[in-house]
Amino acid sequence: MSVTGGKDAMEPGFAASEIDTSKPHPARMYDAYLGGKDNYAADREAVRQVLRAFPEVPAIARAHRAFMQRAVRFLAGEAGIRQFIDIGTGIPSAGNVHEVAGQVAPGARVVYVDNDQILSEDENPAARVQKPRRLRSARMPLPDSRLNAIGSVAGSTGNDPALDSLIIRLHIETACRRGGALALTPEDLDPEQCLIRLHEKGGTDRWQPVSPTLMTHLLAHTEHARGSLDSGERLLRYPDGTPITTRRYDHLWKRLGEHLPWVETQQVSTHWIRHTTLTWVERRFGFAVAQAYAGHEESNRGARAMGATGTYVRAGLPEVATALSALTGERHPLAPQGLTTHVLALPGHRPPIRRRGTTRQWGADRCYGRTTGDILRGARRSSLCPPRCRSATCLRRTAAVFPSWR
């Protein structure tokens, strides 16, 4: 191995008064073994002496580097890790952790930690490492057929299909984050009003409407399937009573990817379900209701974006419950009676008319097809629904396709 390149002691950007370039340093020597340029004459001379006694050292350094890169690829890929800490990193060089992780998962974040007294803050080579560019999210609302496929596979495969079906339906109905579902306790259930309390990121708590069907299965999961729980204990559990963790989600989506190739290809995750539900709500009930449905109303982000108008367009539990009723086809105790679609009675506008034998009529557009409530009851779709049906709960237009519970 020939040792060339490197830096001159007086190269601009490095102060000789602060860096003792007359003595070799292990980090710079390691950089020289790898063929890097962050080293000085003293480091290269020390490397030559080492090579005379141990000529295999560069191969060992490269093998060490290759192992690090393989480990990072595995963690960022198969294990789904998105945050890395590299302790004792030395001098960053080509093929470092942030570069390898970024190739597999562009959103991965890496923190480098080292204690090297020979470098000032301005001269630290790590300061020259470009931050990974935050790519635009590839998430998109899932179409009916794919959401239905997820529910079908989750409810028919794995070692606990009932638990996985419950998880999928919980996220579809509430659009909650993974942490909110994991933090649920028995005290967070309000069966009388069909509400659950979600503890989510940032220490926020909120009450979210759920359908009577989902509430029934949450109570059954708590009281019968998993045994009685004490106060404050996590609600979602395995059959042996052990609380589930994020690993359950990892295994669930890995299994879904094995049965549904597009899940693996597009890296579909629980947040895609949140995206799907919130998009469905926003398209049919507007921004304010979608914001409240997502649990964003307390942050006042929408109000800031709309200025003073944001003061008047906030939504509350009744509006969220109305959207949920349209989503599931089930009445909710907090939703105004008879409202399952978002209608504003404007002059000259014909309101929806109920007619026997129809799901709903909007002007001249009728829906004879099944609603999401029919889907939950396992009914088959009628062929009478027109291709351009505008009903808010028509199967052609709704993304709310849930696993059937009989």
Walk me through the structure.
- The structure is a single chain.
- With 406 residues, this protein is mainly alpha-helical.
- It folds into two domains: 26-127, Vaccinia Virus protein VP39 (Rossmann fold, 3-Layer(aba) Sandwich), CATH 3.40.50; 144-343, hpI Integrase, Chain A (Orthogonal Bundle).
- It is 39% helix and 7% strand.
- The radius of gyration is 29 Å and the shape is elongated.
- 32% of the residues are buried.
List keywords for this structure.
406 residues, mainly alpha, two-stranded parallel ribbon, hpI Integrase, Chain A, 2 domains, three-stranded antiparallel β-sheet, elongated, Rossmann fold, 15 helices
Number of strands: 7
CATH superfamily of the largest domain: Intergrase catalytic core
Could you tell me the CATH topology label of the largest domain.
Answer: hpI Integrase, Chain A
Shape: elongated
Enumerate the strands of the largest sheet in spatial order, edge to edge or round the barrel.
3-4-5
Indicate the radius of gyration in whole angstroms. Answer: 29 Å
What is the element string, with H for helices and E for strands?
HHHEHEHHHEEEHHHHHHHEEH
Supply the CATH class of the largest domain.
Mainly Alpha
Number of domains: 2
